[in-house]
Specification:
The complex is a heterodimer of chains A (316) and B (433).
Chain A (H helix, E strand, L loop, with lengths): L13 H18 L13 E6 L4 H13 L3 E6 L11 H10 L4 E6 L4 H7 L6 E7 L5 H15 L10 E5 L6 H12 L3 E5 L15 E3 L2 H5 L4 E4 L5 H4 L6 H8 L3 H6 L5 E3 L12 H5 L5 H19 L5 H4 L1
Parallel strand pairs in A: 1-2, 1-3, 3-4, 5-6, 5-8, 6-7, 8-9
Chain B lengths: L1 E6 L5 E7 L2 E7 L9 E2 L4 E4 L1 E2 L16 H10 L2 E6 L10 H14 L3 E4 L15 H6 L6 E2 L9 H10 L6 E4 L12 E2 L2 H6 L3 E2 L1 H18 L3 E3 L5 H12 L4 E5 L1 H5 L21 H13 L4 E2 L28 H10 L6 H16 L16 E11 L18 E11 L2 E5 L2 E2 L9
Parallel strand pairs in B: 1-4, 6-7, 7-8, 9-10, 10-13, 11-12, 13-14, 14-15
Antiparallel strand pairs in B: 1-2, 2-3, 5-16, 16-17, 17-18, 18-19
Helix pairs in contact in B: 4-6, 6-7, 7-9
Classes of the chains: A alpha/beta (316), B alpha/beta (433).
């Protein structure tokens, strides 16, 4: 059970993370039935406060909240206080006045969700749906859920699962949250990236580092490809998209080197042909669509636990 | 005016008299009843503090600070002279603006306000500002700085260093390689990697320090390095001094005490440029200051209104106020830790900065004939920092809630009693403030 806010994967203990995963599993089973909707959060208001465009994450949270019968308000506040629009504080106070019970926030500044939770601007439960280049904890939870579903469905945790996370680690909130959560659940994580896309302080992380995807690809159970933002190319993080793709992309040759039961993941949206080839994305090993599906279940579980819904059995 | 039973840094108890702004008499005291004047009750009597790095924000950002409110803050912190940084709006890059700031300081009448002139027009780093005109103005500017921005172009920096030799000026460099610090928010290291904020690497500071000490050697001019924050920077300056290069350097109180771990909660109160570094850097800075490799403490007092700090970290402004806490933080970090004694502190906060800047009325020995720029400090008392009680117009102190040693009780500015029992002695002309 989690309480308060969900700001970082570091906030989760191994036990609370595993319990979220099992709550999500139960909720998924219920909503797989003919009647997808549960009455548990009736009367609660969930605000999706998105300072950055992210249609996928927003509709995932929106679907999750609606399946739990919460009222959903989508607040798109593009142009944060960094660009001198309305300040985060004023926005938060507005939502407080409207009686939001939970705020799902996506923001371009690292730490924005934590600021919302730490200040007195708003009393609602805060769920970090991606803050700058910091974290995206529900993505890590849905990734853990998906890995468990495919590779450890009968085991307690993710012990011994070898995970490769490949790509722009430096700017990736998905990578930070996954490193924290997956290692906590017993997985062994290796980051594969050009040195330009690894943070200088990465030595402190509980991971292995490699610059050679070909060396690593055959040894893993999970390969998680991260999206490469095209603007990185102009900042000389790598010489060209072709060179990046050649050295760090998942193509058919590398796909063939994966072990028999290995799975391919991507948080989306994909750049097909850059970090992942179309055939890799569509291969039987790819669980990318499962990730999207599981995202709804995980977000239901998070909203459910934070907003204190009635026990699942009763609502059924 | 008489001050009795004041303790000097060497432990001697003295009675002094002040006449026409000068110390007219210094006698050994025999502790006892005092019939007239001020009984210092064995408080420490030292020369007034001198700050070479103060953002007073006027003209342009009077919502954050004015020359008057900044002067009040300075007095409360034990300063008798401050140096107003040039990054105002309009920029202090011409004689008109520096004279305006100088006059505002005179009219506030609490401390000497000495304007610093910009090195380049508009702080743009492209063309030299009219430094000669500023030097010849009534403000008699000798320190030039684009602080807030680095004089990045090596040729402009070379020319500036050469040019100020005409009037024995000094270039105070904000050492920050701009390309290595694009969008930088905090020290680059373990913490920035974890919390996902763009890093400001130590090397971006050290690369400019290294370049500029070599330039200063080549053109035989005076260079001052603002707010050194890294162990590597201290190392480079030590090397330069051993070679006889005319370089001086400053460290801020906040960099002597705080580290980048404080940024983990994303509170912009800890956002400052250059950023808070690591414990290893703090240690090196303390050693450097004790050794004299770093010559002085400077506040980098940088007031910001609350809305510039009450926001997400990346939207927050860089800077902290520091005038009122500087002395106490230095006592805490340098005296209580036995890195320095009181004489060292007086040197680093008064004598050396006055010497570097050429403020001849400040940082003098307590002797007959010296200007009476003096302060009394109760070194046996602690105080509790309450940001709402600061005299500065802005409240962005990172020390709020801390218990700090040593209370500044009295300040004498050119013989005038401007702070009494830690209260500013109000003047009629300022009473509407």
């Amino acid at each position: 059970m989690i309480t308060g806010h969900l700001l970082s994967a570091a906030d989760l203990t191994k036990e609370s993370a595993l319990s979220l995963l099992s709550t999500a599993k139960e909720l998924a089973q219920i909503t797989d039935g003919p009647n997808k909707k549960l009455p548990t959060l009736r009367g609660k208001t969930v605000v999706n406060l998105f300072f950055e465009d992210s249609t996928r994450t927003r509709i995932s949270f929106e679907t999750a909240a609606k399946r739990l019968s919460a009222d959903v308000i989508n607040f798109s506040a593009k142009g944060s206080s960094v660009s001198k629009g309305e300040s985060l504080k004023d926005t938060a106070q507005t939502l407080q006045a409207m009686g939001a019970d939970a705020v799902v926030i996506r923001h371009g500044s690292s730490g924005a969700a934590k600021r919302l939770a730490d200040t007195q601007w708003i009393q609602a439960a805060v769920i970090n749906a991606g803050d700058g280049t910091h974290e995206h904890p529900t993505q890590a939870l849905l990734d853990a859920f998906t890995i468990k579903q495919h590779l450890r469905s009968t085991e307690k945790d993710l012990s011994g699962v070898k995970v490769l996370i490949v790509g722009d680690i430096l700017h990736s909130r998905v990578a930070r949250s996954n490193v924290l959560l997956l290692t906590k659940l017993g997985a062994q994580v290796t980051l594969v990236a050009p040195p330009t896309l690894l943070p200088v302080g990465v030595s402190d992380w509980p991971v292995r580092i490699s610059y050679d995807l070909d060396e690593e690809i055959s040894k893993c159970d999970v390969v998680m490809m991260l999206r490469i933002q095209l603007e990185r190319m102009n900042d000389s993080f790598f010489p060209s998209s072709q060179e990046y793709s050649k050295r760090f992309g998942l193509n058919s040759v590398r796909l063939a080197k994966l072990s028999k039961n290995a799975i391919v993941m991507h948080p989306g949206p994909m750049n097909r042909g850059l970090e992942i080839s179309a055939e890799s994305a569509d291969d039987l090993k790819s669980v990318i669509i499962d990730q999207v599906k599981n995202g709804v279940a995980i977000r239901m579980a998070v909203l459910y636990e934070l907003l204190g819904g009635a026990p699942i059995g009763e609502s059924k | 005016m008489k001050i009795s039973n004041a303790k000097l840094a060497n432990g001697n108890l003295v009675n002094i008299e002040i006449t026409n702004g000068l110390i007219s008499k210094v006698d050994n005291a025999i502790a006892g009843a005092v019939s007239d004047g001020i009984d210092a009750k064995s408080k420490l009597l030292i020369p007034g503090l001198v700050d070479l790095h103060t953002h007073l924000r006027e003209p342009g950002r009077e919502d954050a600070e004015t020359v008057l409110t900044g002067s009040r803050s300075a007095v409360a912190g034990g300063y008798t002279a401050v140096s107003a940084m040039a990054n105002t709006n309009p920029v202090a890059d011409n004689a008109g603006v520096v004279e305006q700031i100088y006059r505002l300081g005179k009219s506030a009448g609490l401390v000497d306000v000495n304007p610093i002139g910009a090195v380049t027009k508009g702080l743009l780093g492209e063309q030299l500002a009219e430094m000669g005109a500023m030097a010849d103005s009534i403000a008699r500017v000798r320190i030039f700085s684009d602080d807030g921005k680095c004089v990045f172009d090596p040729l402009i920096m070379r020319r500036a260093l050469e040019y100020v030799k005409t009037f024995n000026g000094i270039i105070a460099q904000h050492a920050q390689e701009p390309r290595l610090t694009v969008n930088a928010q905090m020290n680059e290291g373990i913490i920035s990697a974890r919390i996902g904020l763009p890093g400001w690497p130590a090397i971006a500071e050290e690369a400019i320090i290294a370049r500029d000490i070599l330039l200063a050697e080549h053109v035989q001019s005076r260079l001052h390095i603002c707010h050194v924050t890294t162990a590597g920077g201290v190392e480079l300056i030590r090397w330069a001094k051993q070679r006889g290069i005319q370089v001086t350097a400053e460290v801020t109180p906040h960099h002597l005490l705080l580290t980048d771990e404080l940024v983990e909660n994303y509170d912009p109160i800890y956002k400052v440029n250059p950023p808070l570094r690591t414990q290893k850097d703090v240690q090196a800075l303390r050693e450097g200051l004790a050794e004299g490799v770093i010559d002085i403490v400077a506040t980098d007092h940088a007031p910001h209104p609350s809305e510039d700090k009450d926001c997400e970290f990346q939207a927050g402004a860089f800077g902290m106020v520091g005038l009122e806490t500087a002395f106490s933080v230095v006592v805490k970090t340098m005296i209580e830790t036995k890195f320095m004694n009181w004489s060292d502190l007086i040197d680093r906060m008064s004598i050396a900065p006055a010497r570097i800047a050429g403020y001849t009325n400040h940082g003098n020995q307590i002797a007959v004939g010296s200007s009476a720029n003096l302060i009394l400090v109760d070194v046996d008392r602690n105080w509790h920092v309450d940001r709402d009680k600061l005299k500065s117009k802005s409240k962005n102190t990172p020390f709020n809630g801390m218990e700090l040693p040593s209370v500044i009780t009295d300040v004498f500015h050119n013989g005038e009693h401007v702070l009494q029992n830690s209260q500013i002695v109000e003047k009629k002309s300022n009473s509407n403030e």
